[in-house]
Specification:
single chain, 212 residues, mainly beta, six-stranded antiparallel β-sheet, six-stranded mixed β-sheet, 14% helix
């Protein structure tokens, strides 16, 4: 049976720790220094897509990523974003949904007065469990996923500039419903990218230097 599932997570400046929860008004800092979202998911006909998966911490590179699980296969990273930001002003909105043999998800980043939306779409072959097409677009520009699923996004540029990188993605993706799990996986993955590619490390160092 084909059916539609869709979930929405919006990251705003009052969020601390996990989306959907408000900080205690007595203990909450006046300027929360982090925005961390665990993973939500939608599934239809065995095709699962995620939303959420955001790690934005003061003076550190921003991370946002989506995962996809084709029928009968392991969960994998659909795309992985690394971006600069002006937290606590940075906001991230994310939504994912699936219907029958199709699914899509997106992250919209708002920071430095600029906006950038990254969207992923996947379609299964008719009557099968294999992928027919998948696409990644950033601010309406399509990117060939075979050329890489890692993107460095300079949000200070107008419009934001995008660098696509073809780096090895993690072979094993754990359960990411808890914000701590998303944070650990995101940072571990980014550290591996930094070791593998100097451009990633240079981009991250430029962000970290602002906090020193």
């Amino acid at each position: 049976m084909h059916y539609l599932t869709r979930s929405l997570i919006a990251g705003v400046t009052v969020l601390v720790g996990c989306t959907g929860s408000q900080p205690n008004s007595i203990n909450a800092p006046s300027k929360p220094d982090h925005l961390i979202m665990g993973e939500g998911s939608s599934i239809s006909d065995g095709l699962s897509i995620s939303n959420g998966n955001v790690v934005v911490i003061d003076d550190q590179p921003g991370i946002a990523f989506a995962t996809v699980t084709p029928p009968g296969q392991s969960k994998r990273v659909a795309y992985f974003l690394v971006f600069n930001h002006d937290r606590p002003n940075a906001r991230v909105k994310t939504e994912g949904g699936s219907s029958g043999s199709t699914a899509n998800t997106f992250h919209t980043i708002n920071t430095f007065g600029n906006e950038c939306t990254v969207e992923y779409d996947v379609v299964l072959k008719d009557g099968t469990e294999s992928i027919e097409t998948e696409s990644i677009s950033i601010s309406d520009t399509e990117y060939d996923s075979s050329k890489g699923r890692v993107f460095l996004i300079d949000m200070e540029a107008t419009p934001p500039s995008v660098t696509q990188l073809n780096l090895d993605l993690p072979a094993d993706v754990p359960a990411l419903k808890e914000p701590d799990a998303t944070k650990q996986f995101g940072q571990d993955t980014l550290n591996a990218f930094r070791k593998a590619d100097k451009s990633v490390d240079d981009f991250c160092r430029s962000i970290e230097a602002r906090g020193k």
